[in-house]
Amino acid sequence: MGILIKGGVYLEQGHRMRWLALDKTGTITQGQPVQTGLIPLGQERSVEQLQRIAVSLAARSDHPVSRAIAQAPEAAAMLAMTVADFVAVAGRGVQGVIDDERWYLGSAVWAQELGLMTAAVRDSVTAAQTSGQSVVLLMNTGAACMLFTAADKIKDSSIKAIEQLHQLGVKTVMLSGDHQSVVDAIAKTSGVTQAHAQLLPQEKQQVVQKLQQDDRTVVGMVGDGMNDAPALAQANIGFAMGAMGSDTAIETADVALMDDNLLKIPAFLKLSRTTRRVLVQNISLALGIKAVFLVLVLLGMGSMWLAVFADVGASLLVVANGLRLLRAGPKLQETNEAV
Questions:
Q1: pLDDT higher than 60, residue 332
Q2: 62-66, 258-262, 264-268, 325-329: which range is least confident on average?
Q3: Is the dihedral of CA 289, 291, 294, 298 positive or negative?
Q4: pTM confidence score
Q5: What domains are there in the chain, each with its CATH number?
Q6: Cα dist. 246→17, 218, 250, 253, 337 in Å?
Q7: What percent of the chain lies above the pLDDT cut of 90?
Q8: Hey, which residues does 138 pair with through a beta bridge?
Q9: Sheet with 194-196, side-by-side order of all strands
Q10: Please, are residues 27 and 34 in contact by the beta-carbon 8 Å criterion?
Q11: Which residues are catalytic?
């Protein structure tokens, strides 16, 4: 099935899951944004020089949108500049010193916090975000110098998986650090129940914690990046996207999906429910046989062979019934692939 479950307790809890939180980039979307444009914001430096600075910072980042900037066609011919004092700021972007000047490459929220969000910059950011594109700003200590736009596509499997989750009675909530307009566009297409935008890693964790207010509610979280680690740890069951997930996310999660197909989560839930059903059957079968034997003994109809059957025979029946689970995985996988 391509699902690595790190403990039986998570398989047991799966049948009680009522909420599933999902990261956007790399989980619902393909996680391979493509740079769609760049806009100089009135600086004296040339476009090529600014782009070279941005590419030098982006090449050191593991965020998908930064990788889109570093892997843009025109970036291939650019010689990376030396970056000193490089720092990745969770939920905001990256910064470093290039030619004795500090540069920032990150979100519009970070620009606002740095006091660099002028009216002209805000208008350019709003226009890009309204069209459903992600925005990254290149800034120095004095001004925002260049705006980059990138777009990502939703995986077909994500839409099918979310539909199946709803059919199984599981509500979905999307958690993203991106702008609200971008998140709303993805949420509408994917069909998630709720969507939250412009979240820091700690705020994602707080949303999951809020969903857990009812102690009987099991909440799952799916993510693939370092920013998802706090929410993955907070969730009752954390799912990491194995193929594209960061080492931190995979280490923190309770269940690792060995590829980036979200359809494995409905398969996991179905397997969990089938497992519980077999467990209930086995317990009922074992207790039922013991009860019948007890009644027969009280009626004076017991024998050694009946005792052997009540003990060893019941164990063999329970094991035989449990072996049916070996066929459950392949069947669930075939069902999901056929959908």
A1: no
A2: 325-329
A3: negative
A4: 0.70
A5: 3-30+154-260 (3.40.50.1000), 34-151 (3.40.1110.10), 268-338 (no CATH)
A6: 25, 24, 6, 11, 26
A7: 29
A8: 105, 146
A9: 3-5, 255-257, 237-241, 218-223, 17-23, 171-175, 194-196
A10: no
A11: 23
**Chain mean position to CA 224:** 5
Pairing of strands 17-23, 171-175: parallel
CA-closest candidate to residue 107, choices 175, 197, 43: 197
- How far apart CA 205 and CA 313 sit, in angstroms, is 49
Q: Rounded to 5 degrees, what angle do the CA atoms 159, 263, 240 make?
A: 105
Averaged over 308-316, what is the pLDDT?
A: 79
Per-residue pLDDT, 245:
54
- Alpha helices (H) in 32-155, listed in sequence order: 47-58, 64-70, 108-113, 119-130
Specify the amino acid at residue 312: V
CB 220 within 8 A of CB 239: yes
Q: Round to whole Å and give the CA distance between 51 and 60.
A: 15
Determine the pLDDT at residue 44: 74
Contact between 239 and 253 (Cβ < 8 Å): yes
CA 324 to CA 281: how far, in whole Å?
12
How many secondary structure helices (H) and strands (E) does the chain include?
14, 13
Instruction: Give 82-134 pLDDT, tens digit per residue.
Output: 889 999 888 789 999 999 999 999 988 899 999 999 999 999 988 888 877 88
Three-class DSSP category at 104: strand
Mean pLDDT within 68-73: 86
State the average pLDDT over residues 43-54.
86
> Where on the phi/psi map is residue 42: left (φ > 0), alpha (ψ -120 to 50), or beta?
left
CB count within 10 Å of CB 103 equals 22
Cα(242)–Cα(26) distance, integer angstroms: 11
